[in-house]
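Deliverable D5.2: sample structural annotation.
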Amino acid sequence: MKMRANITTILLLVSLLAVVISSVVGGNDKKNGGLRENFYGKSCKSLEKIVRSETEKKVDADKTLAPKLLRLHYHDCFVRKVHYMCVCVDPVNGDNTTEKNAVPNRSLAGFEVIDDIKEALEKQCPNTNVSCADILALSARDAVSVLAKKSLWKVLTGRRDGIVTRANEASRDLPSPGSNFTTLLTLFGRFGLDKTDLVALSGAHTIGVTHCPLVFRRLYNFTGKGDTDPALAPAFANELKKTCPPPVAVPATTVDMDRRSALTFDGNYFSGLIKKRGVFTSDAALLTDPASAHLVNKFSSDKKFMDAFAISMVKMGAIGVLTGDEGEIRNNCRAINN
């Protein structure tokens, strides 16, 4: 009887240990929306290497692709509370209601990079069924890594592609360059992102460009009285005015969002904000809240910014992901499967 009791006790302990291990592993998947490391480990061991190689080749040839791919990833994550890669879907038969046609998305670029990676993966790992959403998440990380000269964050995989694409939802969910701090915090909060995430992810503006029409009002008619936004340093405002002269800013004319290092991923964007050199109203807004302003000062350190950015990118990349049997694995990233 004593031996039987001991065996029963051991079996109970083993069962309890199994439950604990399952809870830890399952909890990690749940925390990250069902995503995990090395999701394609068995079906395509070289997947991340292929994505990295293709992305680096493209970005080495054209550094401006890095901010374009990062922005593409950001716009994909911030719509419908679902990370589902519908920002790449082309309109069919003149339909202008797709997400790609939303006003904030009309200047997006880098789609051809995703197409080429999808093709390269199919050649190396036929019928692996790699989602376009995972390809975008990986290529955005790898593109930024070229400019940062190191890999900044881990990308968990296992996303599925969505089958719903609506322009009005992109217009509703994406923060505008003219947003104030309260609006920004509210929009980020809807997706489970906090104040630190807001400031850290705004640091994406350390690379890339915008266009004159998006800064024109700040320069020439901020309150409707022909004035300039007082949150801009006068010398910086004059610099922008030379690039974007009146009466109408030429839409094709670009403005570096980080005027001193637009193709270097670093904390210089935050150093510029401290000097009132933020290009957008939404940039300057980060200084209007004491806690946010403190983070701006903190993130002017390259290391502190990159560490925080990495954490926030992992959080953003897990927003409302489709996994398991949800959605689909798209054959062509520009078209929902028939």
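Annotation notes: Residues 181-316 form a domain with the Peroxidase; domain 2 fold (CATH 1.10.420.10). The chain has two domains: 47-173, 181-316.
The annotation will be released with the project's public dataset once the embargo ends.
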